[in-house]
Amino acid sequence: xxxxxxxxxxxxxxxxxxxxxxxxxxxxxxxxxxxxxxxxxxxxxxxxxxxxxxxxxxxxxxxxxxxxxxxxxxxxxxxxxxxxxxxxxxxxxxxxxxxxxxxxxxxxxxxxxxxxxxxxxxxxxxxxxxxxxxxxxxxxxxxxxxxxxxxxxxxxxxxxxxxxxxxxxxxxxxxxxxxxxx
Length: 182
Description:
Largest sheet: 4 strands, antiparallel
Structural class: alpha+beta
Strand content: 15-25%
Distance between the termini: 39 Å
Strand order of the largest sheet: 2-3-1-4
Order of helices and strands: HHHHEHEEHE
Number of helices: 6
């Protein structure tokens, strides 16, 4: 099990370095990179799906009797570790979070985020369906490395704020990747 995990980590690092230099391994990664270019599906998810299909189908072959169920399980483990490693290294610090904040004083919250965290904020109209009251939501999109700083500012302004943090696959525009690179 440890060998499968280490193999997945090291091969994931090698493939990520290859991709960073504009290379290819000549396998499933070509298809995965083409799909990734036109759809917001990560390279790792595509490789995971295709490799799981290939590994699982090996159970149907008579020659797979030598591999056995243990080999298939180790193949699944290595594929998962490999795909997560490549995704982490390829996206690295480019990953972004979308933070939605429901609080009493949305104007003070947006100002604090803008001034203290040096991040832009957008105020959205909302209706609390349980309470049937109109409210505002402060939305912030930032790099994952900046999320803790934004959350500290939110806590200092309103410790009772309701906050959701979600990962965002692609962010384009000022301060993020240029729209022209798509």
